Amino acid sequence: MATTAASAAPAPPAASPASAAPKGGPRGEGPGTLHLIPVGLGDAPPDRWLPAEARGLAAGLDCYIAENAKTARAFLKQIGALRPLQEITIHTLGEKTSAAEIDGWLKPLRQGGEIGLVSEAGCPAVADPGARVADAAHRMGLRVRPWVGPSSILLGLMASGLDGQRFAFHGYAPVEPGERARQLRAWEQLSARNNQTQMLIETPYRNAAMFSTLLASLRGDTRLCVARSLTTDDEWVRTATIADWKSRPAPDLDKKPTLFLYLAR
């Protein structure tokens, strides 16, 4: 949910030798592997959010699928890629990417090999277009391996103290103010009816407006959690009732990736 900034990092753990052309090509017998590799949520060094084994594996891959090639290269620079960045193939996954294109990227894995899938930030394929790639890999009979790493959805839910068994992530609320307020109240009714935590995000520069709309739209006894800049030095998480929030100064959310969670009774 936030673009990862490149920063210097310790050399990654040793990785297996990189594969020869074609990119993502054979490294052994049998179907190859699509690696789902998390990317940091901020500028913290990768040893804080990605295990050593995953860093070593990711540093050795020669082919990636990513939403944004620039972000992917910043990630590879962070983890200390074992080859020059210009020698690493990065396929860009966009809204107009066809199923045939995705199948073409994954086709070399039928003879073995490995390809990495990364998101703009956090875990790929979770509230993320990378799910299309994972689905295609399964349809082709390939191995899909998820690696441990940061997910703002899970981390925010963990820290919120709200119901962690029944929850829903909605992505973005409507932009139009009236429609947005109506949708937030509809989710509040759903929350009360099912004891279900509601989660959403907003474009960082609109965070303050979203916070104000939440306070104006939800009931006083509804509990709201604001989870800002998770995993970074600026991380801040607070849960309180809407009534309590109204009595406090508004948190600084300007241009900072934030997850909003609420639970109604």
Automatic annotation (TrEMBL):
UniProt cross-references to Pfam families, sorted A to Z: TP_methylase (PF00590)
Keywords assigned by UniProt, alphabetized: Cytoplasm, Methyltransferase, rRNA processing, S-adenosyl-L-methionine, Transferase
Region (Disordered): 1-35
GO molecular function: methyltransferase activity
Ranges where the Tetrapyrrole methylase domain occurs: 34-244
InterPro entries: 4pyrrol_Mease (IPR000878), 4pyrrol_Methylase_sf (IPR035996), 4pyrrole_Mease_sub1 (IPR014777), 4pyrrole_Mease_sub2 (IPR014776), rRNA_ssu_MeTfrase_I (IPR008189)
Alphabetical list of Gene3D superfamilies matching this protein: Cobalt-precorrin-4 Transmethylase, Domain 1 (3.40.1010.10), Methyltransferase, Cobalt-precorrin-4 Transmethylase, Domain 2 (3.30.950.10)
SUPFAM superfamilies linked to this entry: Tetrapyrrole methylase
GO biological process, one term: rRNA processing
PANTHER family: RIBOSOMAL RNA SMALL SUBUNIT METHYLTRANSFERASE I (PTHR46111), SAM-DEPENDENT METHYLTRANSFERASE (PTHR46111:SF2)
Name of the protein in its database record: SAM-dependent methyltransferase
Annotated source species: Achromobacter aloeverae
Lineage: Bacteria, Pseudomonadati, Pseudomonadota, Betaproteobacteria, Burkholderiales
